[in-house]
Amino acid sequence: MTFSKTLSLFSAIALSFGLAACGDNGGSTNASGASNAAPSAASNAGGDSLARIKAAGVIRIGVFGDKPPFGYLDANGKSQGFDVEIARNMAQDLLGSPDKVEFVLTEAANRVEYIKSGKVDVLLANFTQTPERAEVVDFAAPYMQVALGVVSPKNAPITSIDQLKGKTLLVNKGTTADAYFTKNHSDITLQKYDQNTETFDALKDGRGVALAHDNALLWAWAKENPNFDVAIGKLGEPENIAPAVQKGDQALLAWVNSEITAMKQDGRLVAAYEKTLRPVYGDKVKPEELLAK
Question: Which family does the UniProt entry place this protein in (predicted)?
Answer without folding.
Answer: Belongs to the bacterial solute-binding protein 3 family.
